[in-house]
Amino acid sequence: MSTIVFTGGGTGGHVYPGLAVYRELPREQQERVLWIGSRRGIERGIVGDQGIRYRAIPTGKLRRYFDLQNFLDLFRVAAGFFAAFWILKREGARLVFSKGGFVAVPVVAAARVAGVPVVIHESDADPGLATRLTAPLAQVICLPYEESIQAFSPSLQKRAVVTGNPVREEFFSASAQDALSLAGLHDEGGPVVFVTGGSLGARQLNQYVGEQIGPLTEMATVIHQTGEHGADMIQEIAAAARPGRYAGFPSLSGEFAPLLRRSDLVICRAGAGSIWELAVTGTPAVLVPLSSASSRGDQERNAARYAASGAALVFSEDQGGSEALLLMVQTLLQDPARRESMARAARAFAGDNSARSIAGIIGRIIE
Ligand SMILES: CC(=O)N[C@H]1[C@@H](OP(=O)(O)OP(=O)(O)OC[C@H]2O[C@@H](n3ccc(=O)[nH]c3=O)[C@H](O)[C@@H]2O)O[C@H](CO)[C@@H](O)[C@@H]1O
């Protein structure tokens, strides 16, 4: 029986939506899935935990600036291409589904040469480099928004389908009840603020929490996901928090969806996956996008697009420091009617089950 190959990695945003699609496939198709990722990327652990077969290939980063590493990486990408080609042939691959990230580029190129149909999905409002490189090789290009189509040439636009962003099933079904106990806290029934920096954590959010943990925990119970790089600060922040009102974690897994459901407000980066999970759980948010000075600016555009729906507010560095953010949080926590209208806007934004639509596209191609 031929294999369905999933690929994608580098950050959680290029892995979790792929898992959401995987889980919507019929069981007999799930059993045929193999994930191709990198040797050391975040995807290896996440995919491995799901019991999905995994093969690693060499990968190189695609930088937009000049660096001597680029030459080395060219060889790594070429090695990745041949490794992927060999895997696709040996497995008798029937289809490749790419969730993007650098590792996906040689896999999609190999699929094209091997004559294997490719479906790709882009999460961000405007396509990243990997999507721009792989779109011409794809049979179907799945995009989050109608206006995302404009980024492609007229011939590629014909292959584009607007699917929204796939969110894992647990975000639809999670219950808020007992969520705080999963974080080791007693639920007093008061407001809960969840601060999350996305799959890699966010130093800036960690700094804000560190500076304002006293007043924040006077207003609410605070759950804080720091990223691995912030693990060392958790103890110090906990010591400055009101007792019983703070729990910090480098990363969360099964607790994530229930905690989103229980939260009255989330403060987070504006990664595409994070935004769609907020939408599905109907959780009001303050988005603090990674600035265009330190990224390609996708989070600023994601944030602006989502905030325009009324589901979130955007806080940017030039609005002030942690005191200004605290004020915004306080204003929202004191206004339940406003949060209720934000929650309604969020749920309306989420729309249909995107993972199911993409699984349907895959199913029709491999029929
Ligand atoms: C710094 C960076 O490059 N960020 C990009 C990355 O964000 P990032 O990798 O953070 O991705 P998203 O915000 O899209 O999704 C984060 C995912 O990680 C999960 N999660 C997070 C923390 C945790 O402890 N446990 C956990 O499971 C969330 O549930 C979510 O599914 O990919 C996104 C999608 O292309 C982009 O929009 C972001 O700009």
Automatic annotation (TrEMBL):
<dbReference type="GO" id="GO:0051301">
    <property type="term" value="P:cell division"/>
</dbReference>
<dbReference type="InterPro" id="IPR006009">
    <property type="entry name" value="GlcNAc_MurG"/>
</dbReference>
<dbReference type="GO" id="GO:0051991">
    <property type="term" value="F:UDP-N-acetyl-D-glucosamine:N-acetylmuramoyl-L-alanyl-D-glutamyl-meso-2,6-diaminopimelyl-D-alanyl-D-alanine-diphosphoundecaprenol 4-beta-N-acetylglucosaminlytransferase activity"/>
</dbReference>
<keyword id="KW-0133">Cell shape</keyword>
<dbReference type="GO" id="GO:0005886">
    <property type="term" value="C:plasma membrane"/>
</dbReference>
<dbReference type="InterPro" id="IPR004276">
    <property type="entry name" value="GlycoTrans_28_N"/>
</dbReference>
<feature type="binding site">
    <location>
        <begin position="11"/>
        <end position="13"/>
    </location>
    <ligand>
        <name>UDP-N-acetyl-alpha-D-glucosamine</name>
    </ligand>
</feature>
<keyword id="KW-1003">Cell membrane</keyword>
<keyword id="KW-0573">Peptidoglycan synthesis</keyword>
<comment type="function">
    <text>Cell wall formation. Catalyzes the transfer of a GlcNAc subunit on undecaprenyl-pyrophosphoryl-MurNAc-pentapeptide (lipid intermediate I) to form undecaprenyl-pyrophosphoryl-MurNAc-(pentapeptide)GlcNAc (lipid intermediate II).</text>
</comment>
<keyword id="KW-0808">Transferase</keyword>
<keyword id="KW-0472">Membrane</keyword>
<keyword id="KW-0131">Cell cycle</keyword>
<dbReference type="GO" id="GO:0009252">
    <property type="term" value="P:peptidoglycan biosynthetic process"/>
</dbReference>
<dbReference type="GO" id="GO:0071555">
    <property type="term" value="P:cell wall organization"/>
</dbReference>
<feature type="binding site">
    <location>
        <position position="299"/>
    </location>
    <ligand>
        <name>UDP-N-acetyl-alpha-D-glucosamine</name>
    </ligand>
</feature>
<feature type="binding site">
    <location>
        <position position="199"/>
    </location>
    <ligand>
        <name>UDP-N-acetyl-alpha-D-glucosamine</name>
    </ligand>
</feature>
<comment type="pathway">
    <text>Cell wall biogenesis; peptidoglycan biosynthesis.</text>
</comment>
<dbReference type="Pfam" id="PF04101">
    <property type="entry name" value="Glyco_tran_28_C"/>
</dbReference>
<feature type="domain" description="Glycosyl transferase family 28 C-terminal">
    <location>
        <begin position="192"/>
        <end position="347"/>
    </location>
</feature>
<dbReference type="InterPro" id="IPR007235">
    <property type="entry name" value="Glyco_trans_28_C"/>
</dbReference>
<keyword id="KW-0328">Glycosyltransferase</keyword>
<dbReference type="GO" id="GO:0050511">
    <property type="term" value="F:undecaprenyldiphospho-muramoylpentapeptide beta-N-acetylglucosaminyltransferase activity"/>
</dbReference>
<dbReference type="GO" id="GO:0008360">
    <property type="term" value="P:regulation of cell shape"/>
</dbReference>
<protein>
    <recommendedName>
        <fullName>UDP-N-acetylglucosamine--N-acetylmuramyl-(pentapeptide) pyrophosphoryl-undecaprenol N-acetylglucosamine transferase</fullName>
        <ecNumber>2.4.1.227</ecNumber>
    </recommendedName>
</protein>
<comment type="similarity">
    <text>Belongs to the glycosyltransferase 28 family. MurG subfamily.</text>
</comment>
<feature type="binding site">
    <location>
        <position position="168"/>
    </location>
    <ligand>
        <name>UDP-N-acetyl-alpha-D-glucosamine</name>
    </ligand>
</feature>
<dbReference type="GO" id="GO:0005975">
    <property type="term" value="P:carbohydrate metabolic process"/>
</dbReference>
<feature type="domain" description="Glycosyltransferase family 28 N-terminal">
    <location>
        <begin position="4"/>
        <end position="138"/>
    </location>
</feature>
<dbReference type="Pfam" id="PF03033">
    <property type="entry name" value="Glyco_transf_28"/>
</dbReference>
<keyword id="KW-0132">Cell division</keyword>
<keyword id="KW-0961">Cell wall biogenesis/degradation</keyword>
